[in-house]
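ligand=2-phosphoglycolic acid
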Amino acid sequence: VSKIVVANWKMNGDINKIVQDLDYFLKHPQVNRENTILALPLPFLGLANTKLNTTQDVHLKLASQDASRFNGFGAYTGETSATMLKEMGISYVIIGHSERRNALAEGDDVLISKLTNVAMSEMIPIYCIGEDKEARSLGSYKKVLTSQLETLLKLVEFIEDNNIRLRRLLVAYEPIWSIGTGVIPTLENIIEVNLLIKAFMQKYLPRVKIDTLYGGSVSAANAKDILDCADIDGVLVGGASLIASDFAVICDVASI
Ligand code: PGA
């Protein structure tokens, strides 16, 4: 079965790279498929969308790395709303990445606003959770992850109260100690957390289609082992997604 691959470029890349890499991705059928999602930097999403719209046989999808906590339009200097992203042809939005939770101090209230805004604009949230090194070594990681999942309960409440249909939600397990370090959890650890996420979702969001991802130092070398794990629906790739040929290898493994 074909699995999902999300590229998270973070604050990297320039116009030349976007054009070159998109050309490369579009030429490779294993990359140019519905289950490949590119989270390019926001300033380049319009350019990418125009390029994809003027090319034939495009299957891959675009994601935004963020959306504003504010909705619609208004006096919020520097913000980009879910409404605007939707109009730009964006299908997915990453919310809750540890870099934003930590470096940008995004707490529950902010994350809930972002999730509801994205849901209202009929885009699909890619919600990230992950424990830090301390929680992993103390063994309290399940508690941390569950509390991060509980943020989604407010989203559930909101969509039920407002009659919004959330078709799909992606949940990525991204242990902080694995991001950008080259260290990944054991496959048993990955499977354990994946089951925890699936059980939580089954209990609280039984009507939403949930796909689970693993993220943190996914590479061309380890992608197959991770994607072969039972019940994992895909991977979220940071560093390795910036090397087009490595990213193609990961997509290739995910297509089989
Ligand atoms: P990494 O980043 O693949 O470079 O570890 C993953 C992420 O932060 O999404």
